[in-house]
Amino acid sequence: MTRVRRGIVAGIFSAAVATGLAGQQAPVVPQAALQITLQEAVRRALDVQPAMVQARGDQRNAGASGRSAWGAFLPTVNTSASATRSNQARFDPNSSTQALQPGYSYAGGLSASLILFDGFSRFANLRVASATQDAAAAGFVNQRFQVTATTAQVFFTALANEELVRVAQAQVERAKAELQTAVNKFQAGAATRSDTLTSTVDLGNALLALLQGQANLATAQANLGRQVGVDQLVRAVPDSAFPPLPDTTTLRPSVLQTAPLVRQAEAQASAAGAQVWSTRSQYWPSVILSYNNNRTGTGSPQLPFFNGYLETFTWRFGLSWTLFNGFGREQAQVSASVLHDVALAQAADARRQVNAQYTQQLAALFTSWAQIAIAGADVAAATEAVRVQQERYRLGAGTLLDLLTAQANLTQAQVSQVQSRYNYLIARAQLEAIVGHAL
């Protein structure tokens, strides 16, 4: 019976070792993972992320609107030219009886108009365009920091999962050593079969944790690849020292005034206020000066001014004033005022939002910083506890349950240490996104 039990244990041990080797193999991927640093990841993400493309497009649109607002002060100029041939006979304008054969007739014209007064609408549109450009610039800065923070979070998540895989591999190695010790003691008659079976289960659980860690790592690397715009797994490579805790003593007042989100909301409120003045221009008259010059003839034209043709020109000074339009102006005025009130409320709420997010991320930053020190002490203590329990179990002074508990505590302490370190880095990146500059 003893030989049968020893054969069963040996078979279990061999199967567990084989499973462990299979579990440590790297997953099959289409191509090797691209290695990238955080700085390079941020640069790539800023180039390819749709939010950044949209922010750059908003800046271009705002710049074009600004040029258009200035262009409204310049005259509008049009020119035209035509050549016409008809199969009907025409009479000579110098003779009332002589007919002319069908031929070409040519015409050219030049017209220009200039708005002299439009109820100050153009000046209000200039204010709207300027505020829109400010909002687009602030939105671009805000989006750049948001993309940077998101990229840092994805990057640090990949790094954390890679370290967690190493923790799981160390757990597998400890479980293998524990199983070998249990088998040796069982074969020597110093342990029970229950110890070997319990060690086998513990090894299986460690292998499952390793497989899950490898799956999480592959997912994180795929997400990082998407963030930086490549169709493959991307391995995060740390490129800087671990940053210390920043000084945030006097940071809050400046954040509430200079945060990109606050600046963007305030610029949008300014644009809405300028739009209110633009709608009020409808109550004023419009004054327009225009000039038209037309030339026609039947001979070959002398370009570019059709010299030699009969010239007709007109100057026009016009004034138009809408006295009543079915309360359309009033409706536009109310709509613009409502939008302005909403924009002011959104600007105030953006300031409160930044204040709340700043408080949240600052608390997360200090909490994770404290957790780093606590987790480091826990790892040191758990490592020593595992060493003591391993020696006690080897000498027969301790139980397998004590050893398993010590190893579980060590694994949990190592996981907590990894998570606290990268939670600190992620919280720091999020705080920088709120503040609008590096800490």
Overall description:
It is a single chain. With 439 residues, this protein is an alpha+beta fold. The protein has two domains: 2-74 and 118-285 and 321-435, Up-down Bundle (Outer membrane efflux proteins (OEP)); 75-117 and 286-320, Outer membrane efflux proteins (OEP) (Single Sheet). 66% of the residues lie in helices and 13% in strands. It has helices spanning 2-23, 38-48, 50-71, 121-187, 193-228, 251-258, 260-280, 328-395, 400-435; strands at 34-37, 76-85, 90-91, 99-100, 104-117, 234-237, 286-297, 310-320. A four-stranded antiparallel beta sheet has the order 2-5-7-8, with no helix packed on it. Strands 1-6 form a two-stranded parallel sheet. It has a two-stranded antiparallel ribbon with strand order 3-4. Strand 3 (90-91) and strand 4 form a beta hairpin. The longest helix is centred in the C-terminal third of the chain and has 68 residues, at 328-395. It starts with a helix and ends with a helix. Residues 15-30 have low confidence and may be disordered.
